[in-house]
Every structure is written in C-alpha cells, then in structure tokens.
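Handoff note, outgoing to incoming analyst
You'll be picking up this chain. Sequence as last confirmed:
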Amino acid sequence: MTKLRELEKRLREEPDNLGLRVMVAGAMREVGRQADAVELYRSVAVAYRDQGRSQQAIAVCRSILEIAPEDVRCHDLLATLVAS
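Most recent structure output, in case you need it:
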C-alpha cells in the first residue's frame, strides 16, 4: 500500500504524466481497487486518443478489459479507435 500512496502523491504533483497514471492504475489494481484502476486507465486511453496516439490508447483499453471485460464504455472507445 505504501507504494501506491507514494505513486498517488507523485501523481498529484504531475497530473498530466500519462506514464505515471498507468503506474498508479496498475498499483491500484494490485491492491484490489479495480474500479479506481479502470477509471484511471480510461483517462489515459482518452488522453492518448486526444493526442492522436491510437495504438497506445488501444493498448490501455486492453488493460481495462482484462480487469472489466464487460465495460461498455471501454468497448465503445476501443471500437472507435479501431475504426479510425
């Protein structure tokens, strides 16, 4: 849990750091905070999409679906990314 707290503190200092967001989401997943991890991963996927980085967004969507295979919002985002 200490690792997660440290990462969350860093994220508060660097909220736009997408790599750090992915690390925090992974740490959340490890400690059982699945819903929080999904939301954080989703924010990264959307940011990548908005930056035109479709492949990275698709990879993050796949991470979401490992945690929440029925996540409709992720399926919609993934379908949009694959179609573009």
